[in-house]
Amino acid sequence: MKKKLLFLIPLFLILTHCKKDDDDPEYVIREYSDQVNVDHQLIEDYLRTHTFNYDDFNNQANIDVKIDTLTDSNSTKKSLYELSNVKTIDVIDSNGENVSHNLYYIIAREGLNEKPSVADSVYISYRGLLTDGYVFDKRKFPIWFDLAVSLEGFREGISELKTGNFSENSDGTISYNSFGVGIFFIPSGIAYFENTTAGIPEYSPLIFSVKLMTYTPTDHDNDGILSIDEDIDGDGKPFRDDTDGDNLWNMYDVDDDNDGILTVNEIDKNSDNVVDDSDNDGTPDYLDPDN
User: Fold this and answer.
1) 9 pLDDT above the threshold of 80
2) 47, 185 Cβ separation under 8 angstroms
3) 110 within 8 A of 144, measured Cβ to Cβ
4) Is domain 18-216 classified as CATH 3.10.50.40?
5) N or C: which end of the chain has fewer CB within 10 A?
């Protein structure tokens, strides 16, 4: 019997959204290709007119991101636009065409250790706001969070950060330092698009500041293969990869080739630490229904 795993996730990322009534004459569902230009302009206008406390991140202390409007009093500071990097993410529209979305991101502090994949579990604190300054969610204290069930723009941003160091205090609590801190500016096409949730209107670009304390490489179906390694089509993401066509992605499927043998029992039957390919056809046994 195949199984799915359930995860607790923050309110703003709950995957059930409120959708406008399609019969509402004032509501028009937009195409990604139309909205993406609107979002990019909104984000770039925001980036050009705001800055943040980047000088505070010269040390490894626990510093919060503070975004400010550029005015005469701080006009010598670099704008968010000058400090931003861009990562392009494609979304398929209703016509089957790829629509490129720019995820703008700033690495306030990179972190010292490793980057998580887009399918890992991360220990983060964060603040989410709209371009008008409205804060729709925040976590001052870190929580564990499964990137696989998050917004695409959110997980792609976090995968650019590195984790920090930690130490145990005398009272048994853990302190973190030197962790990655980032700011992400996400167009609606890789956020909620036409959906509304937690006070976020439809077609809203989102802004997040995130601190990445640590992460855990994650195997969602406990089949012995990390979820990120169940990326069959080689696009760097394990989402929608479904070898046996049963509408259950491999990262959630305990029998990836649907041959009646659990994946965990097909990976390395002779225990030589090499993935088995019995007929040497280039397809490992756990993905090959004939073996």
Assistant:
1) no
2) yes
3) no
4) yes
5) N
